[in-house]
Amino acid sequence: MALKEHIQAPLRKRLKRFCLYSLLFPLCFSCKDSDSTEEQFNPNNPVEVTAIIPKTGAVALPLVIHGKNFGNDKSKIKVLFDDVQAQVITAKNEHLYILNPRQTGGEHTVKVIVEDKEGILNEKFDYIVTSSVSTVAGSGEYNDNDGSALEASFPGPEYLSVDDKGNIFNSEYNGRRLRLISLNERKVTTLIENGDVFGSYFSPDYSTLYIGIESSSTLANELDCTSSFIKTVIPNTLEMKYGAASAAVDSQGNVYYIGYAGAIAKKDIKTGKLAIIGEIPEELVGDYSGIDYYAAYNPKDNHVYISSRKTHIIFRFDASQVSLENGDFELYAGIFEHTGHNNGDRLQATFDSPKGMAFDSKGMMYIADTNNNVIRIINSEGKVSTFIGNSEGGYKDGSLEEALFYHPYDVTISPDDFIYVADYGNHRIRCIAIQ
């Protein structure tokens, strides 16, 4: 199967219109509505669905549904395309702002259900099977303002984690803060200020976010994501030099902190014991200075993967190991201290400052190849290819062939395989929707 889907000219035109719609729709909902749109749902009246704009589109496209008697409580509203439920972003009495769910290609019946009332659109919605890149947060300005997602600003998003509820967590070392991007509410808020936050990773049940901290006194923060994002500080009792640059969590819930200076600590989730289990050998990372490691866990092979942007390689170790000797670290991809943009076999391919990595549900690895301005992938056969972008870089949403990044730092993948990119040079968070 081809790694990129080639979109014909008519589809390209429609995709451009979709991008325009996605910019205009949030503006419509930010304006003051008439008094009728503020009315509550009336169970004595029918639910009417009169139009959907646009009438055709691909996955994750913002859509507006017009009608009557929707109410304004989105928790009571279901929007179905046949049997596939869409995410309701904003609800007004006469229109709904939703995201197009992943569907099969072709025509689908649109239905809105409010409590025990339902309305059906007379015309069908035409779903286009394609893949695309879009911006989900960030105005492109170098700043640290919170607010609505596309108006908020980032000094440089560096580390990302995404949960199962539509929340993206962005660690910014430059801004020294942890930011929350709510995809449901389309807004950005700051959770932690004045903290030297680094790479983060979720527990298997998404209840806890483990965040590496650059500090001689603090190793990490553990963020309780079940309620009010309560932070627990993990002191650096192991005296890991400079603290932890990143974290990874295996399928059992054990946490691996990758030290800024190369030590690896493991927290046993059953006993709570935290101990250093090994140290990254110098033949993989040089003298350690200036290393900002990124880490990821692959449940398909039970290995923790670490990228070394200084030596331009990716290496791994078996998470079942009780302790790690030099021989337990395996070079996985790239050539030590060789930069380039060569695809092919993973041990012959070259990278230029690879940083964030993530695995999808099929075990495919996605890599933010930072200085090459691209997203690379490594398939199950160990073949490296360029997925999106080119070496010149830039900023452009659209199809996989057209989209551009500028110094992408990290990638993270949601449970439903949406890929989010920390587009550092463009000061934005991007989404790759693959159909």
TrEMBL record:
Alphabetized UniProt keyword annotations: Repeat
This protein's record includes keyword Zinc-finger: no
Protein name, UniProt field: IPT/TIG domain-containing protein
Superkingdom, natural source: Bacteria
PANTHER family, per database record: NHL DOMAIN-CONTAINING PROTEIN (PTHR13833:SF71), PTHR13833
Origin organism lineage: Bacteria, Pseudomonadati, Bacteroidota, Bacteroidia, Bacteroidales
Name of one Pfam family that matches: TIG
InterPro entries, per database record: 6-blade_b-propeller_TolB-like (IPR011042), Ig-like_fold (IPR013783), Ig_E-set (IPR014756), IPT_dom (IPR002909), NHL_repeat (IPR001258), TEN_NHL (IPR056822)
Statement: the UniProt record of this protein carries the keyword Repeat: yes
Location of the Teneurin NHL domain: 292-391
Residue ranges constituting the IPT/TIG domain according to the UniProt record: 49-116
